[in-house]
Amino acid sequence: MKAAGVLLALVHNTVGIMTPFLLAATGGLFTELAGMLNIALEGLMLFGAFFSVVFAGLTGSLLAGVVLGILSAMAAALLFASITLNLKANVFIAGLATNLLASGLTVVLAFQMFKNKGVVRFELGRLPVLSIPVLQRIPLLGDLLLGHNILVYLSWLIVLAASAAIYRTPYGLRLRGTGLSAATIASLGLRPGSYQMSAILVSGFTCGLAGAVLTLNLAAFVPNITAGRGWIALVAIYLGNKTPWGILAASFVFGLAEAVSNYAQGAINVPADFILAFPYAITVLAMILYSIWRHYKGRA
Questions:
Q1: What is the spatial distance between Cα 16 and Cα 213, in angstroms, rounded to a whole number?
Q2: What is the pLDDT of residues 33-82, one digit of tens each?
Q3: What pLDDT shows up at residue 261?
Q4: CA separation, residue 243 to residues 173, 185, 239, 251, 283 (Å)
Q5: Per-residue confidence (pLDDT) for residue 287, from 0 to 100
C-alpha cells in the first residue's frame, strides 16, 4: 500500500511538473510546423517567468502577473521574429541571442529594481486550485487529476485548441504547408512569413504562460529558474513526433523524470548532483532512442 501511495503521489506531482514542458513544446510545435527550429523557447520562458512574478508582486494581482508576463514573452518573441524574418538573421543565432539576452537581462533588471542578484520574492496568494469534492472521491481520478492549480488545466485546453487549430482549420493547413514548401504557399498568393510570424508569437504566448507557472507557484524569481526546460521542451517536440498528443506523452515522461528526481533527493543516499542530473540524462537517452527509431524506420 505504501508503494502504491508513493506511485500515486509521483504521478500527481508529475502532472503539475510537466506543465511548463507541455506549454513550451506546444508553442514550439507551431514554429516547427512552420519550418523554423525555435531554440529561443528557453529565453521566452525566462522572460515570462521574470515579468509574471514581478508584475504580480507590483500590482498585487495574480491575473495581472500572468497576463503581463505573457505579453512580455510575446514582445520578446516579436523581437526574435522581426530579426529573423524581416532582417533575415540566422534563426539559430537569433534564438541563441534571445536565450542569452533573457538570462542576462532578467538578472540586471532584478538588481536595478530590487537591488538583489539572487532570489526576488513577493508575498502572493496561491494560484487557484481546482477542487471538486464529488469527483475527488472517485478512485485514481481524484488523486491524479484534481487538486492542481488552474494553469495546469489551462495547459490541457491549450493542447486541445492547438490540435484543433493545426488539423481542423485552414490556418493549420497553411501553417503545415509553409513548413513543407514555403514556395508553394507563396504561389497561392499567401505570405509564408506571416504564418511563421504568427507561429513565433504563439510560442511566445505559451512560453510566457509556462514561465508564469514556474514562478507564481513559488511566488519568487530565481536567476535562470527555467534550468534548461526550454531545451527539454524542444526535445519533447521531436520525441512526440511533432503532434500535440505525442508532445503530451513526451512531456509526461520528462515530468515523471523530474518528479522521481525530486523524490529521490530525500529517499536515496546518492550525491545530489547525480540526482539533479537525472531529468537531463533521461532527455539525452530519449534523443538517442528517438534517433535509433528514426534510423530503422527510414530503412524499413
A1: 9
A2: 999 989 999 999 999 999 999 999 889 889 999 999 999 999 999 999 99
A3: 77
A4: 14, 22, 9, 12, 18
A5: 72
Q: What is the dihedral of CA 95, 75, 153, 3, to 10 degrees?
A: 40
CB 254 within 8 A of CB 282: yes
Considering only CA atoms, which of 58, 114, 81 is closest in space to residue 199?
A: 81
Q: Tell me how far apart the alpha carbons of residues 182 and 85 are, in angstroms, rounded to a whole number.
A: 13
Whether the CB-CB separation of 85 and 196 falls below 8 Å is answered with yes
Distance, in Å, from the CA atom of 259 to the CA atom of 167, rounded to the nearest integer, reads 32
**Tally of CB atoms within 10 A around 60:** 13
Closest-CA residue to 50 (of 177, 218, 259): 218
CA-wise closest residue to 215 among 98, 66, 109: 66
Give the Cα separation of 290 and 299 in Å (integer): 14
How many whole angstroms separate alpha carbon 26 and alpha carbon 42?
13
Rounded to two decimals, the pTM is 0.89
For residue 1, pLDDT over 80 is answered with: no
Assess contact for 122 and 65: CB atoms under 8 A: no
Tell me what the pLDDT averaged over the chain comes to.
Answer: 86
Name residue, grid cell 537525472.
278
CB–CB of 146/214 below 8 Å?
no
